[in-house]
Write a structure and sequence with these properties.
alpha/beta; Aspartate Aminotransferase, domain 1; Aspartate Aminotransferase, domain 2; 2 domains; 7-stranded mixed beta sheet; 4-stranded antiparallel beta sheet; about 40% helix
Length: about 400
């Protein structure tokens, strides 16, 4: 983080770029991030450009292609990945569905999930099991939040017919960060496997919060969205496909964006990189909105600097919550990311707490499994906001 202003002043000036922060204390970045003004303006300008010059014309079509290229480049640069490994999608769920349906499943194959995966991913696995007679099982990762080794738990639940392991990098319910690189290594070296075990990572909570180098991370597929911690618009996300995993899956949906067309307009094959999983027309102005959101974060600091600030803020929130009567944090040590989950120990309703806090201008959410309240802090969350939230929770949690 650089600049001529003191750190606190610089942060406050930076926060002014996010209109949603002006009238509320926002603690729900894991649900949806706060869009910067530059993104709002870029989206509007893009829609205006399309209508002024098209909306369908040679010039606009060329502009659309360039917008896609620039957006893949921005994502690749932020996540430490080659641009040809990035597929543009609508959200993380679409990103997960691409490899899940793209594998050539055979009866008796096995999918391993953790017990902390999002219902959308779990439902997809269940439908694959029903259609293709694939076995789906879960391993108890939730219990390793405070003790235990998640890598060992996953290793113990691999099977000779395991073809895909699905896990979240940052668990959306408990806030635990999983050691993806270690887990990938265990899957690669599983000697009892009859084939290579692929690893799909749900990055809904990690993209934009953890510093990432996807090339070094090692996962085969890394599905992310732009509308949470990246603070981009809803409707734009992506999928990283490791180069040596590209040919291990086939497109389930296909369209003109993913195919090579010959001189007479006939499809002759897939595009040679991750673009083959893109389909057809999208809300292209959102691309500029995501790029501006990424650029806004980069103005403040590097991914590592932003992550360190997130950890400082989340530790402060965790510590203050730990001091309250009738409140227990799920994690017994400071969190390694921006998600802090807690429970009321006096039997009060978590839903009522969240609703009451929202009426006071504090935005949090409930989680069903485990039954808890989740608060999210970003690098630009102010300590004063945390103090105000703690006081509001203290009053609400009184017997």
């Amino acid at each position: 983080m650089t600049g001529i202003y003191p750190a606190a002043t610089q942060l406050e000036r930076h926060r002014q770029q996010f209109p949603a922060l002006a009238n509320k204390a926002y603690f729900n970045f894991g649900g949806q991030g706060t869009l910067p003004q530059a993104s709002l303006e870029a989206i509007q300008q893009a829609y205006t450009y399309i209508q002024h010059n098209g909306p369908f014309s040679v010039g606009v079509n060329a502009w659309i292609m360039e917008e896609g290229n620039k957006t893949r480049q921005a994502i690749a640069s932020e996540f430490g990945a080659p641009v040809e490994t990035i597929t543009l999608t609508e959200d993380v769920t679409v990103g997960c569905n691409i490899p899940m349906w793209g594998i050539d499943w055979q009866a008796g194959d096995h999918i391993l999930l953790t017990d902390c995966e999002h219902p959308g991913v779990v439902a997809t696995a269940q439908e694959i099991a029903r259609r293709f007679k694939v076995e789906v099982s879960t391993c108890p990762i939730m219990e390793t939040l405070n003790e235990g080794n998640p890598t060992e738990v996953i290793a113990q639940h691999l099977q000779p017919r395991t073809r895909l392991v699905i896990l979240s990098h940052l668990l959306w319910n408990t806030g635990q960060v999983l050691p993806v690189t270690e887990i990938v290594e265990v899957c690669r070296n599983y000697s009892a496997s009859t084939q290579l075990i692929r690893v799909l990572v749900d990055a809904a909570q990690s993209a934009g919060s953890l510093p990432l180098n996807l090339t070094e991370l090692g996962a085969d597929f890394y599905a992310f969205t732009g509308h949470k911690w990246l603070c981009g618009p809803e409707g734009i996300g992506g999928l990283y496909v490791r180069p040596d995993a590209l040919e291990s899956i086939s497109p389930t949906f296909s369209g003109w964006r993913g195919i090579v067309i010959d001189e007479v307009g006939k499809p002759v094959g897939w595009k040679p990189d991750a673009r083959r999983f893109e389909v057809a027309t999208s809300a292209y102005p959102l691309y500029a909105g995501l790029r501006e959101a990424i650029a806004t974060h980069q103005q403040w600091g590097t991914p590592q600097e932003r992550y360190e600030q997130i950890c400082k803020r989340s530790e402060y929130l965790w510590q203050r919550l730990s001091e309250l009567d009738n409140v227990r944090t799920l994690a017994t040590s400071p969190p390694k990311a921006g998600l802090v989950s807690f429970v009321l120990t006096n039997g009060h309703s978590h839903k009522q707490l969240v609703n009451s806090l929202e009426q006071q201008g504090f935005m949090l959410r409930t989680i069903l499994d485990p039954d808890c309240v989740r608060a999210c802090v970003h690098y630009f969350t102010q300590p004063a906001e945390i103090d105000q939230l703690i006081e509001a929770i203290r009053l609400e949690a009184r017997d």
